[in-house]
Each structure stands twice: as C-alpha cells, then as structure tokens.
Amino acid sequence: MLNTTQLAFLLIPIAIIAFQDFKYRAVHVLAFLLLLTGVAYTLYDWEVWRPIDILLNNLFIGINLSGVWLYLRVTGRIFSWKETTSYLGMGDLAFWLVISLLLPLVNYVLFFLISLLIALLLGKIIFRAPRTIPLAGIQALVLWIVLCADSLYFQKGVILQNCLIP
C-alpha cells in the first residue's frame, strides 16, 4: 500500500502529464523526469527491484511497437521507422517506459491494454475532429484513477504484486 508521500510523488507528475497532453498535445520532458523520480522513490522506499518485470515490460513495448510499425509498413502508410513518430508521439513512448519500471508484468499488460482500449473509445467519441489523440494523457488519467482507487478503496498494492487478476 502506498503511503501519502509516495502517492503524491506519483500522482502529481501523472496529473501534470495528463494536463499537458490534453491541453498542448505535448508533454515537457521535466514531467517525465518528475514521474521517474516518483517511481524511483516508491520502488526504493519499498525496496522493490524487479529487473525481470522491467525487462519483460520493455520487451512487451518493443513487440507492440514492432507490430505497429509492421502494420503501417505493410499498409503503405510509412516507409521508415522515423515516420512512425507521426502516428505515435515520443511522449507516449516515454510514458510507457517510465511506467514499465513501476508495475509488475501482468499489471502492466492489463493497464496497457485497458488504457489503450479506453483511449480508442475516447478518441472515437470525444476527439473526433483532431488527427491525434492525447494517448499519454488518457493513459496517465487511467493510471491516476487506478492508483487512487487502489490506495483509497481496494488497498491491494497494485505496484507490489500481480493483483489485477486473482
């Protein structure tokens, strides 16, 4: 269970990321550094270090990015890896990488899939006109809600263990 300081060190940067991505469609690198500091503080305070989860989470990101690139390549929308950034922002990738340090593998995969589904639905419903959606902002908002709900109601320790599944 997160204490108040840990929760603040995580929720404040997450809120900043969500706000900046919704308002400006860009997130300053300092917001990610703040979140990285909060993640490091939380993991250090709990003496939790899961290198295998971090490795597998980043492998999961790599597989997803490769799949997206391959799909866009086959459909003829892009021809180089550099062009992928017009479909996926660097802020989205930075958010995924920082959060990959925080969550165990099962929780990370579930968070990733559920937040992408929510982003897709919100993108179709709310953000119809713009060509882009604030993916990092939506995912940050989902993570903010998960951390708050876990700390206030469920108290299962989403960060410490694979508790999103029985």
Q: How many discrete domains? A: 1
Write the H/E string, N to C.
HHHHHH
Query: Which spans have pLDDT < 50 for at least 5 consecutive residues?
Result: none
Based on CA atoms alone, the radius of gyration comes out at 16 Å
Category by helix and strand content = mainly alpha
Rounded mean pLDDT is: 86
SS field, number of helical segments: 6
The share of residues in extended strands comes to under 5%
Can you offer a commentary on this structure?
This protein is mainly α and 166 residues long. The chain has one domain (4-154). Helices cover 69% and strands 0% of the residues. The model has no long low-confidence stretch (mean pLDDT 86). The chain crosses the membrane at residues 27-44, 56-74, 94-121, 133-154. Keywords: Membrane, Transmembrane, Transmembrane helix.
Which properties best describe this structure?
about 170 residues, 6 helices, about 70% helix, transmembrane helix, membrane
Overview in brief:
The protein is mainly α and 166 residues long. It has one domain.
List the helices and strands and how they pair.
Layout: H1 4-24, H2 29-46, H3 51-74, H4 90-100, H5 105-125, H6 135-154
Helix pairs in contact: 1-2, 1-6, 2-4, 4-6, 5-6
